[in-house]
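=== RUN LOG ===
request id: a7f3
mode: sequence -> structure
chains: 1
length: 259
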Amino acid sequence: MSHIPTHEERERQEVQATQTVAQNTAEVESPSLENENQSEVTQREKMSNSVEKQSEVGASGSMADQEQLAAGETALTAEDYEKQIAALKQEVEDFRNRAMRWQAELENYQKRIARQLVEERKYAAIELIRDLLPVYDNLQRAAQSAEQNHDVGQLLQGIRMILKQWEDVLARHECRKIEALHQPFDPNLHHAISRQATGDVPPNTVLYVAQDGFVLHDRVVRPSQVVVSMALPGPGGEGASEPVEPGASEEPSNNHPPA
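=== RESULT ===
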């Protein structure tokens, strides 16, 4: 007599059968998934390898191109350097030639100026001499007239005219006579040759001009030689005049008039 399974046994058998089928299905599908995964990995590796190869090829190509460009640039730069060097050499030569010309011109200019200075110093008095020649001519005429006429008055008048003409010539050349008579004694303009006691004028006043002095512009050419007044001596004084010793205070201190 056969055993009839109960309800619980049937359920347990169905569950076992379902698990067995699921396990068999999983075992069958797992190799296919692994194969698919492996194929995907292989394809990815192939793609990455191809990309790397392409990048390497591109890099090698770019490096080669860069090397070619660098070689070309090096060749052009060297040629440009040669041109620049040649241009600089030419420029230096031009500057050297200019400097030599300028130096020669400067030396010629200095020599010319030196010659002109020598000539100017040599002939500096030519204008004054030209102005004095008419005075010389008048002196000759006065001397001839005196010899022929023996007129002292006319000779004196002619001499005075010549003296006035002489002073005018000197004035045209900025050389003027120092007016010293009856002026206060100035050691910058006057040279005292003696002192004379008098009560007519204040002390240290020019009483007499022995020789006229002259100034050129603001420089004394020759001081006036004068006699200077002094106070009258007291009781028992000796003499009314005395010469001035050389180096006394009345001598001019310098050849420049006071400012």
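=== NOTES ===
The first helix runs from residue 7 to 122.
The CA atoms of residues 184 and 205 lie 5 Å apart.
=== END ===
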